[in-house]
Amino acid sequence: MWCARREFCGAWLCAVATAACAGEPPGLPSVSSGSEGSSGTTVASSTSAETTVGPDPDTATTGSTSAGSDDGTGTTGETVLCEGPLGLCHALGSVVVLPEDLTSIAHGNFDGDEYEDVVVGAGSRTQVHVAFGTAFNPLQAPQGYSTQFDTDVVDVAVADLDGDGVLDIVAAHPLDLTLLRGAPDGTFSIAGQVGVGSSVLDLAIGDFFPDQSPTIVTVGAQLRLFTSLGRGPFEYFVATSAPLGSNSAQRSLTVGNLDPSATPAIGLTHRDASLVSTHVLERIDVVQASSLSLGLPVAITAADFDGAGLDELVVASGSGDAVIVHQLGPNGDFAELARAEPAYDVTALEVVDFNIDGNLDILFGTDGDPGAIVVFLGDAGFSFIGPFEFLANEALVDLTVGDFNGDGIPDAAGVGMSSITLVLSTPTNAG
Known about the structure:
Blueprint: H1 11-21, E1 42-43, E2 50-52, E3 81-83, E4 88-97, E5 102-108, E6 117-122, E7 127-132, E8 140-146, E9 155-159, E10 168-172, E11 176-182, E12 188-195, E13 202-206, E14 215-219, E15 222-227, E16 237-243, E17 251-256, E18 265-270, E19 275-282, E20 285-293, E21 297-303, E22 312-317, E23 323-328, E24 334-340, E25 346-352, E26 361-366, E27 372-379, E28 383-391, E29 396-402, E30 411-416, E31 419-426
């Protein structure tokens, strides 16, 4: 039997962990989103097993990550959060240390096994690093790939660009894109480079042109869509663009089924203008469909919370005042469906059914000393329970979710300037 607990955890959390040790199905705590005292329950981090990867500016950096316990989960065995009807638990996992100036993270199954992997962008080293998921030591043996540009990698995204069934990587630089072709064994090689022509602040991938390769979307001073329509699979070019104005210092984007009149649509945050907007493709033009005033929006994502077939927008403010779920109405107006007040400086958002109870949950990465991976558990009727906090190794700049230990349950990976912090699903009973 496996169980872990902290003596200084919240009362309900200690009770849940004790019940899990006794083989009883733990239940959800009675915590309301944003309420005083009980909502701030903290799952404290502990010293994790670390692997330092020595930098190699020419080729790759390799190493392995040691698990912090003997239970085969790769966790430290010192913190646990149990929630949901299945008695599912998540715990802090090992920390993977990489060269400094990491900027972004994305996930995908790069080598075709049962474990998902991650790719991180490195700033001053102009590289991407791929770390592979495994059963016992998730995200071991990071491998570095040069992008052959002398500028930072500001963001990374993953998609099958050439239709061969193997995932490829898009690395965004301030003025360019590098396309890396994936091989079935999980290795990558440069397949193309694309000039953007204006600043790139964020990157996403969607399917805007039917029966064609995925569309690459970038945002900066302009919103640009890239396609390889009529060319080779890695010969991307600008299909259309739309100016967004000079106030472009901080923008982020997401792609989703946001608008009933167009699939997909683009959601943007404009922090300097305290604005959120959606944009759709009409013929070959990108046009703004709606907008919403919101103070200091810094992170955005989209997901279908109610199963109605239309994604809702989840937007976080930089001041930590709120994580807000919005739905776009038929008249182009936003309706606020839910609000949480985490009181953290949010840097990244993800939505997933983290505890596999049928309700989508919100995860976000935070700035701070250190940062944290924070979870709001979704409940019925656009309500959320939390926040529940897993302290990270350092302030986080980006976040992704995937099944890194191959058990079919989502895990979370937050990247800071020089490390990846994991929150992994873990069993409450070993036998």
